[in-house]
Amino acid sequence: MKQMDGELTSVFDHIDQNRDRSVDRLLDYLRHPSISAHDIGIREVAERLSSLLTDIGLEVSTVTTPGHPVVVARWDGAPGKPVVLLYGHYDVQPPEPLELWTTPPFEPSIRDKRIFARGVADNKGQHLAQILAVEAHLKVHGRLPCNVVFVLEGEEEVGSPHMAAFVRDHRAMLKADLAVTADGQMHASGRPNLKFGSRGVLSFELRVRHATRDVHSGNFGGVVPNPLWTLVHLLATMKSPQGDITIEGFHDAVVPPTAEELDAAARLPLDLEAFKRSLGLQRLDEPADRPFYERLSFHPTFTLNGLHGGYGGPGTKTVLPHQATAKCDVRLVAAQDPADILAKIKAHVARHAPDVDVICNDLGMYPSKTPMSTPMAQPIQRAILSAYGIEPLLYPTGFGSLPGYVFTDILGIPAFVVNYANADAANHAPNENMTLDCFHNGIRCGAAILHELGL
Amino acid sequence: MKQMDGELTSVFDHIDQNRDRSVDRLLDYLRHPSISAHDIGIREVAERLSSLLTDIGLEVSTVTTPGHPVVVARWDGAPGKPVVLLYGHYDVQPPEPLELWTTPPFEPSIRDKRIFARGVADNKGQHLAQILAVEAHLKVHGRLPCNVVFVLEGEEEVGSPHMAAFVRDHRAMLKADLAVTADGQMHASGRPNLKFGSRGVLSFELRVRHATRDVHSGNFGGVVPNPLWTLVHLLATMKSPQGDITIEGFHDAVVPPTAEELDAAARLPLDLEAFKRSLGLQRLDEPADRPFYERLSFHPTFTLNGLHGGYGGPGTKTVLPHQATAKCDVRLVAAQDPADILAKIKAHVARHAPDVDVICNDLGMYPSKTPMSTPMAQPIQRAILSAYGIEPLLYPTGFGSLPGYVFTDILGIPAFVVNYANADAANHAPNENMTLDCFHNGIRCGAAILHELGL
């Protein structure tokens, strides 16, 4: 392990001494719901964030968009040093189903050295760690080692529909040399990660209604079309039992991974039995022979998020339902364009099941890719080593979707993702949690990144 | 129209004079829920029925079964005359979804000369009509023209699981020359129907769980199997987009219709455009080229009653669900055996999707068939003509499922179904209803059947 610089050591000491107080500040932040999908609490939380960033000495603008505001906070006191854009999102997923939470999602609870609350890992605990890292540098040294611009949006969980336009319209305010996002989860082994991109995503619904009401399955069965069968047969044309997405033209824009990327994916550690045990899985998804990390890094997906139609209560009900809906998302890889993919889905559906409607209320998120050989990766890798005492795992791409493309494709800068949350954080699920250690180490990592970028 | 017998005319007069009082008695009956699927109110309603039948002068036994009791009521005062078994069911479907009812399902309401209530058509209004027909004969003439045995069960809506054993165990009590069931709906034109059989039915669930919890579709998509896709791909192997059921061996036992049956189905009137309009349909179910009444008479079906898994709330939720359930029913035609079909479904599922469970809590119902040429059909046809002034339509088989097989296959007697309810009765659906005229004419028809059988 590299000898640590005294300047960083004193910041780490400050962070360690304030560990409990930092947790209290996170708990307070988590008590305020900010559910973008339902427009609950968004403005209040944006204002709290703005106050916090102002209080620690940054120049804050709360920028309105056609959706939820973006909180931007700059510190430009290190001329000649790089500018790092720190991205995060203050909105959270809806907490439902509530009955599966051990404690209420917006009443944070500490059990077994973990904080349980909606948004603790995704993403409040992670960007708050970045903010507290900035605060620690400013408290200890009265300045930052490099320049910083925070970009904290309120619509990530609904697909960041206004981020691209926001970035295009505010290039000057957002001028930076690299972007770093703290989001997502560490490896199951506890090792930190450094990711060079993310998959894109497009969410849509397939809706079908045949009759104007539910009817008796005996008196009408065989005559009245069944919307569930319509969806089943349509969906079966869109993805094969072998796991191949069969929407016409879906793979046209896919750029195959480079040898370096394939090699990096192959080097990621995997305890497949432990993974399966952790989720109670009997098997992985199809195709059975595809390497684990290649599935998550280089292949698009087509997930049914929910499918509902007809009777779902106890016992039997011999009813023929009149409507059904499938909520879907597709994860995209470079260089698939969500608008193009949506057009292909619509064309496919029109061809195979013209009575099904494709509903899409957002434009989705492009995939993002930063070359693994970029020199800007070096200080980030060193920072992670400083904070955790171990080299990060290098991922050619993250598995989830973050709006990294606005940095790589619009601002033209390298974009990295580091993960401060524990592997079992249960993002998007009941009992979302973050360990106290992960939160604390996240603050340390944030501090180390600023330090390394200033060298 | 045949000159009417004075004996029947006086019974009809009595029925007409008591029209309003009969409606009041039906309203009272409908206020008492008897939901077999949820075991609500069953015993209370069986007791009310028993008292009613005793009061009008029948010899009543309430026979316990391992499920809900069967109310049997005999009148044997016409030696040498035929014995007609009158079957009905006092249980009703669950009323959900409650929010779609204009008035509460167990607070009967009269609007536009219709009674709205759960069970009014299916089947309380129909077997009460039979009972009031018997009462009318007894009131006017002090006797019945033929012998009668009522068999009123409380489990038809959950598949009559104990009817076969009950009939096998009580052959003496049920000795009869023919069985007549008043259930189901008249033709959309308002013409009465006479049906010579019914489709069987088997209800089951397909259930699958992969992971122990829902997971993030980005972090796990492509690795964790999706139970909805598992169901989609399994279901696609069970029925083709062209409407053919493709479960291996499913059609093995199907007896093709006779020329007489095909001819009868072809003669049934059809206003296809009016039918489609009545349900807001753009098209019929597949296969597109199959004649309308052949679909409903001679072909089995595979209906998805409900399919549920994952997120169903507003907006998007990029979740990969861990479990899903499809509730299904298959309608069977002669001579498919539900136990054999269940075994074939289980074998098919085991072969195509071994991680899906097939759950079946009842043994289903056999199809039933009475030859159209049976002489016993003649008095029933004449009775319908007397009551309605028009010849009935003759159906080789009804479309729904009634336990007629216990009469045809166990007792070895011809079994007929007449329909007293209006075509738009909305059985099994919100706002189930029966017109006042249909109820009144049902009582008249019941009286005429007894009369014709006594000639």
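The CA atoms of residues 70 and 286 of chain B lie 39 Å apart.
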